[in-house]
Design goal:
By secondary structure, the protein is mainly alpha-helical. It is built from five helices and no strands. It has a domain of 74 residues.
Length: 108
């Protein structure tokens, strides 16, 4: 069974529901967690839920532009993770913690 057949068998509403659940979990992770690495993972989860919707709608409408856009979103997300983790490693070397509440003291 090809990828196009799989997308035609499963209704688009299922992809919308799964993507909404993943995005909501990501938002809750950003809002309620205090660990910076967990926050980065939650942002990645939100980006991946949007990518899932883009691929689903792109396949549903037989247009490859959504899939091309997913490629660029993934490239930007990888760059964001690389820069974010480099900043976190530098902060951890200086402060010895990556707790967001303790990082607020760096403003002073």
């Amino acid at each position: 069974m090809t990828l196009l057949n799989i997308f035609s068998v499963v209704p688009i509403q299922y992809y919308i529901f799964i993507s909404a659940v993943l995005f909501s979990v990501g938002v809750l992770g950003v809002l309620f967690r205090r660990n910076a690495i967990i926050i980065f993972m939650s942002v990645e989860l939100m980006l991946n839920s949007v990518n899932l919707l883009l691929v689903a709608f792109s396949t549903y409408h037989n247009d490859a532009s959504g899939q091309v856009f997913v490629f660029f979103v993934m490239a930007v997300a990888a760059a964001e993770v690389a820069v974010g983790l480099a900043i976190l490693v530098t902060i951890f070397k200086n402060v010895h913690s990556i707790d967001i509440d303790e990082l607020k003291s760096l403003k002073n």
